[in-house]
Write a structure and sequence with these properties.
Structural class: alpha/beta
Shape: globular
Bound molecules: flavin-adenine dinucleotide
Strand content: 25-35%
Radius of gyration: 23 Å
Number of strands: 22
Helix content: 25-40%
Number of helices: 13
Length: 520
């Protein structure tokens, strides 16, 4: 029998594997995702999706559906605060309202939606766009050479093994990543922070929630530290428990998981709710490890690590899944351009160059949120200063050969800049400028390169593989940091690849595009 061949094999069919498959499909590239489990995630896990993720969902036509589904479970305006218990005092407010301060920066909003609800939506769209997803199938071996990768797959029902030949592999196989281990890639960072649990439960907490800002509710009391996510009825939800007891410097405090009994789980849930008067029913308990680490490389040859396989963070701030989706967004268009022969293979080297420093920053910032919100007594000596969420979402700066710096600017080396100051700086996400009723400059990006120029800009010879947009909207040139004669070249992932602040020629534009695409 002829060997199965596919441009991209994706190991792992969860949030990041499926997002990669969907984005490759969006670029017209078929992929095969193999996933051990019979279906998508069974536990809610990620529940807080940031602007870059919802912008990506908008690009593939899922924004309205995801926002509507989110409303079935959560209040759109929840915040992040801390209480002694649901029945007790409120002790801190970390984020007043999920979307406070976001307006004007994005055509979309942050959403609360659970991972087990979001994944089937992404999976369906991936299939519509031509991806293949094979469940109950495990990748057991990868063997790469100069022209591709031969993967050995095992059907977990029949035990039968087969091989598939792929040009490239995305290892989106999670925190324990067997592919990362196989490639001998290490992890570095803060290591294991805790052995934690999540208790899924039913309990009518609606009265206790009256008057509370209902989003993510942290709990700090002598019995435990963690956080609640409750649905909008206040009747079902989950409680994440990071640590137990008052002295969080003791090793026992960070091991909630080992030896946990049903009775102990109920006792902890009861302590977090703070009253005996609400009947509780524990539905399930998930055990997991909070870690804060980044891979020493995200690429080995033709294999690319993405998602938790490349970086793991504690679930404080909602960074894990969102960062993984950014990996997928960064990688998909690059793989597509190389596979279609539109870019040189060196473009793929820019994935690690752009994403790993930002993954490290994300790991640091998630750790900062863990340290300040969960274990402040441990001291702040090794904790990086807090960078605000909007900057972490929209102000990250990428550097690689796929970003041409301003010819008149000096690189300050910063990995982040507040979006009000970024103003179309190469390497940052191109700014949102409204173009009329629910239309944004961001809607011009996604599949191809886009040239955005102001009214008086010259009419250059625009290469065939670039969409040319003349933007006749007040404030556009200013938002993009260019003059009326200037122009900006935006990559398919919505990142500014090059700009000319003043007048430019068609040759300059073409050579910038060739440099970004690593074309000789
Ligand atoms: C309690 C909790 C709350 C969280 N909250 C948030 C949040 O609010 N926002 C956020 O962004 N993130 C959050 N996260 C993190 C988020 O859940 C993860 O970052 C996300 O699931 C990572 O997705 P992934 O696809 O990279 O990995 P995973 O979801 O771990 O998926 C990897 C998949 O690969 C499969 N696999 C592994 N090996 C193989 C193999 N050899 N062959 C085939 N399949 C294989 C596995 O079965 C698995 O399905 C939270 C996590 C937890 C635990």
């Amino acid at each position: 029998m002829a060997q199965e061949e596919i441009p991209v094999l994706i190991v792992g069919g969860s949030l990041v594997g499926l997002s990669s498959a969907m984005l490759l499909g969006h670029h017209g590239v078929p992929s095969l995702s193999v996933e051990r489990h019979a279906g998508t995630a069974i536990h809610p896990r990620a529940g807080h999706f940031q602007l870059r993720t919802t912008e990506m969902l908008r690009q593939v036509g899922l924004e309205d559906e995801v926002r509507a589904v989110s409303l079935l479970t959560y209040h759109p305006t929840g915040g992040i605060n801390a209480v002694e218990s649901l029945a007790g005092r409120e002790i801190a407010t970390y984020v007043k309202e999920l979307n406070e301060g976001v307006e004007g920066f994005s055509p979309t909003v942050r959403v609360f939606i659970n991972q087990d609800v979001l994944e089937p939506i992404i999976r369906r769209r991936a299939l519509e766009l031509g991806a293949t997803v094979r469940n109950r199938t495990e990748t057991v071996d990868l063997d790469q050479d100069d022209s591709g990768v031969t993967a050995t797959l095992r059907d977990l029902d029949s035990g039968a093994e087969s091989t598939v030949r792929a040009r490239y592999v995305i290892a989106a196989d999670g925190n324990r990543s067997p592919m990362r281990a196989r490639l001998g890639i290490g992890m570095e960072g803060y290591g294991e922070l805790s052995r934690s649990i999540t208790i899924y439960f039913r309990a009518d907490c609606s009265q206790l929630l009256e008057g509370r800002n209902q989003g993510v509710i942290y709990v700090h009391n002598p019995a435990l530290r963690g956080f609640f996510r409750l649905d909008r009825s206040g009747g079902t939800g989950f409680l994440v428990i990071n640590t137990v007891g008052e002295d969080v410097t003791r090793p026992e405090a960070v091991n909630v998981s080992d030896g946990l009994t049903d009775e102990r789980a109920r006792e902890l849930l009861r302590a977090a709710i703070g009253t005996d008067e609400v009947p509780i029913e524990v539905l399930d308990v998930a055990h997991w490890r909070a870690e804060s680490n980044v891979a020493t490389t995200m690429t080995v040859g033709r294999v690319f690590l993405a998602g938790d396989a490349a970086h793991v963070v504690p679930p404080n701030g909602g960074y894990g899944g969102n960062a993984g989706v950014q990996d997928a967004l960064n990688l998909a268009w690059k793989l597509a351009a190389v596979i279609k022969g539109e870019a040189g293979e060196a473009l793929l080297d820019t994935y690690d160059a752009e994403r790993r420093p930002l993954a490290r920053l994300t790991v640091e910032q998630a750790y900062t949120r863990y340290a300040t919100r969960v274990v402040p007594e441990r001291g702040m000596d090794d904790v990086e200063p807090f960078v605000d969420d909007l900057t972490m979402e929209l102000g990250l700066v990428m550097r690689s050969s796929a970003v041409i710096p301003d010819s008149d600017g000096e690189d300050d080396g910063a990995l982040h800049v507040h979006p009000t100051l970024a103003r179309g700086r190469p390497g940052t996400r191109a700014p949102h400028v409204p173009l009329g009723e629910n239309r944004s400059t961001l809607d011009l990006f996604g599949r191809r390169f886009a040239l955005l120029r102001a009214l008086r800009s010259p009419d250059p010879q625009v290469p065939d593989d670039v969409d040319d947009h003349v933007i006749d909207v007040d404030g556009f040139a200013d938002a993009y940091g260019i003059s009326a004669e200037g122009a900006t070249l935006v990559r398919p992932d919505g990142v500014v690849g090059w700009r000319s602040r003043g007048a430019y020629t068609g040759d300059e534009l073409r050579s910038a595009l060739d440099a970004i695409l690593a074309r000789a």
